[in-house]
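Fold sample X.
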Amino acid sequence: MDTQPGSELSRVPCSTRVPSSAYPWYVLGVLFLVYVFNFLDRQIISILAEDIRASLHVGDTQLGFLFGTAFAIFYSLFGIALGRLADQWYRGRLIAVGLSLWSLLTALSGLASSFGQLALARVGIGVGEASATPAAYSLLADHFPARRRALAIAIYSAGLYVGGGLSLPLGGWIVHGWSRAYPAGTAPFGLAGWQAAYLAVGVPGLLLALWVLTLREPTRGIADGLAVPAYTPGAWRSFGRELASILPPFTLYSAARVPGALRINLCLLAVIGSATLLLTALTGDKAQWIGFGVGLYAVASWMQMLRARDRPTFALLFGTRAVGLALLGFGGIGFIVYSFTFWVAPYVMRTFAVAPHVAGLALGVPTGFAAAVGCVLGGYLSDLWKRRDPRGRLLVCALGVILTAPLSVVMLTAKQIAVVYVVYPLLSLCIYMYLGSGAAAIQDCVLPRMRGVAGATYLLALSLLGMALGPYLTGKIASLSGSLRTGLLVPLVMVAPTALLLWLSAGGVAVAEASRAERARAAGEAPA
């Protein structure tokens, strides 16, 4: 097993001074801006989808793959290793490096001239963006006490929706302005409007990365009275081992070093490989299912190695029934959220013949505002409800999911576009109540040294189970039926099982939180 904090870390001197009351809010403000850029760069593809479809000659299934699977698989996988690095290295530096990478690749997306090139850029954006949120969750958990944690994470998470809200009008405005300024064939370097939009939103993130580098690193666990240093010797060596346990074919080498693990790993590879071949044969979507299969096998390999190398973390994340059910529930939320996030803008443009700059403004600004309000409201309700009922955080998530169903039906059956413009922000307010609440619920159930991995695992559930499947399946059904409206009914299938999983999980979170230290010690955690 790897060295635990109680041994090597306990010998490293650290400050136990609680940060000033103002500085945590300053850090939160900077991280909020990082998340604005995170989702601005990620989400702008939604308003550009129709232009990309015409320019690169791709269909709805390929668009769903670009937005979902191509991004989500590598976002999920690298998020695990980068979450581990966030637990052992300087988190501000890690966020700055990742921000630089995804901003550069967003700009380079504007130079893509084929589906394959754009897909590769989306993969790189996913890798870069994977660095931000696990490290940010960990930083905020150390800057804010538990009673304010869900609110702080919710405010940070609201940056995602501000970025998403800005991406639609900004992308539509750039495409419209570029097309008017440069008729077909006259643009500099032959760039289309959607390519110019990518270039415009990618470059500013490089400047923001320099600002992030100025943030001070707090002592880990100080807000919980469990102070350990910010830096662990050998952090990058540990990151390399973590990456090797995730990325094939290095997974086989990692498994071979653990007695009995290679046989199990090969069995997992055989089962997942067979399922991948079957799904590819049934659907004809080779890239989708190979990508998803690789992601699923990589996660299974990582869980094997986590159990062998860090049994306490494995026990608190995957050996706890309540946490396991919650992660599955968050996957269901991701399926719903990411399907609507990507496809509603193309749906409005096709169904009601609306131009991108009009749809972007009408959908992006009110929806982004409503989603941000919903996220912060969910965090506030989560903290308030949890003081009265330990199930409060997950009950907030379940409530938001349940309210999604009737609002979605009203939106998708509307004959007037005004109804969509009114209902979609309300839907977004409800569904996005989960984010700060869900993240805080998982953070509450682990030790401070595990927060980066816990944040990455939370995002893994949202991305691998939600983002990698929801947008693709919505696009697939739309392609088969010839109706994007029919495709957008697919996410509603997940409402009932998702709410049930969250309800079942809520009953056990109090025990999971109260017993985390005891169960970690039973699994081998060294005393602090």
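Fold sample Y, listed below.
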Amino acid sequence: MGAHTITDGQQANRRYLAAALAVVRRTLERHASSVEKQPCEEQTPDEDRQELETAAVELQGETPLQTICTAFNLTPFERAVLLLCAGVELDSSFADLCVRLQPGRQPAEPTFSLALAALPDAHWSAVSPASPLRYWRLIEVGKGTALTLSPLRIDERILHYLTGLQYPDERLAGVVEPAGESDELVPSQLDCAERIARIWAALKDESAPVFQLCGDSSAAKRDVAAAVCAVFGLELWVLPARNLPASPQELDLFRRLWEREAALAPRALLLDCDQMEAGNSTEERNVNHLIEHLSGPLLISTARRRPPLQRFVPAFDVEKPRVREQRAVWRNTLGSAAGQLGGHIERLIFQFDMNAAAIRSAHADAIGRAAGSVPNGTTPEAIGASLWESCRVQARPRLDDIVQRIESAAAWRDLVLPERQIETLHDMALQVRERATVYGAWGFSAKGERGLGIAALFAGPSGTGKTLAAEVLADELRLDLYRIDLSTVVNKYIGETEKNLRRVFDSAEAGGAILLFDEADALFGKRSEVRDSHDRYANIEVGYLLQRMEAYRGLAILTTNLKDNLDQAFLRRLRFIVQFPFPDAALRTRIWERVFPAETPTEGLDAGKLARLNVAGGDIRNIALHAAFLAARDAGPVTMGHLRRAARSEYAKLERPLTDAEIRGWE
């Protein structure tokens, strides 16, 4: 690593700081000579000021010392106290003077008593907690027998800043962080940023601005905030609301440290409230306190508009790139290849709701995928397929605590259902696949987002193939399938269930993933009569779900064992309802014929006899799997004997008797 290069400006600052320290040092020396009644040969105060003015001539701008004095409104005496504390750290002669002026005091530390006695223009108010030195933590007061005798020490952040080094206060580490690189804004986002900047500029002579950025895309709001800050030469830093200190004392300390940080460097704060915990009164109180009292530029990222406070906080809606904007980003990113991929681009746009950065990342990943495929890795079809897979990964939601992604390898041949149900499932796949044509090219989406979501209900007894059908659709459409764990979604606390549902839909929206709400009657049952506030809110949750399903760009599948338990108004909102019947003997025969993989060795199996077992397809798969393990133990093929033993085990689990009629003739 090469040596650090010192710029001319840094050298000029060091000379100015050295001159300022020299003025304070000579002031102490004159005071020491006066106390000791010794002659002083040092230059006069007028000569000190002239030397400082000479050093200032070389400056190319305001020095850190001047910035501190201006930002925190330090008096000449407070400035001298700050330099006294800095001098002890930077110049060993200051320590000698402290010992000389405070005989018997060890270690050699400055005190307010020394400063009040030795420095000019001294005033008692500089000692108070409300003084800039103490309020802004420019100096720290140690323990002593009296306030004026307590040791003083310059804050480390301030010391580094005086010497020209920019290190954020370590007490802010892990609480706030730089926003990092921002993405280029699309026209609608740029228009939003320009409107905010105009209002900000109009408020320049008033209190520091505060703005709400509302919407579901955290990335888009962060990009807009960064663009606004760039107009005013500010660096954007992010504070997740969950990182706010809990206690009022710690919150006040954080607020002061950040305000000090923003005064020392051109920075603005983005308060990220997107993941705030519903019902957390402490977190809500602290967020409101910060909004009301923080000085300095503040932007708030929130999914929904926050209730009004005493402070003027205008709100702006920030959206992901619109369809036409995504199309423009895709065409700019693909360049000359865009003409050959027109149809592929439209399908990507209507399936994956991605920002510009995600689009470019997907393109870069797809080029690698296509180049690595053989034999036609660079054909439009191969590139289109690679783009689809890359977008699928880029848009994959990160909700492992609420949803479970199911890796699907099921195909249509694995699904044994009556012809009518199979036809309905094919219709579902068709509507998902052709969304770009109907909603886009044929204009249906121009009439509004309501009703464009594809929602389906799979109803039927357990084990009849509802989850398997969802897997088949996911494999057919090359989309991710997520099973929603209702035990983590439904919450007894008011507002929590709605918040969890919003997280699921918002996160899955980008990739249009297939959402599988298993045993949905637990959440979407008949809306109850309103007897208390909890019943009222439960109905609100169902209404919220219906609204989100109608606008969801992907496919939402609800499964239930008890269709009659679902509200008729809810059923009317569903585009498809598929009844999964308990398989009759003919269907069970087909299931048995397909249940074993081609690689599994079998001997003497009779699908017709096996179909006498009056069980659903899920139970059939369990029996076949158990029998395969028994055969593997015997190092031979799967036989009817293995299946008989496996059937007895499965029936015992179901708490049902295995009758002689069901297994007659199996030997």
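Sample Y note: The chain has five domains: 8-167, 172-317, 323-395, 412-579, 585-663.
Also: The longest helix spans residues 8-36.
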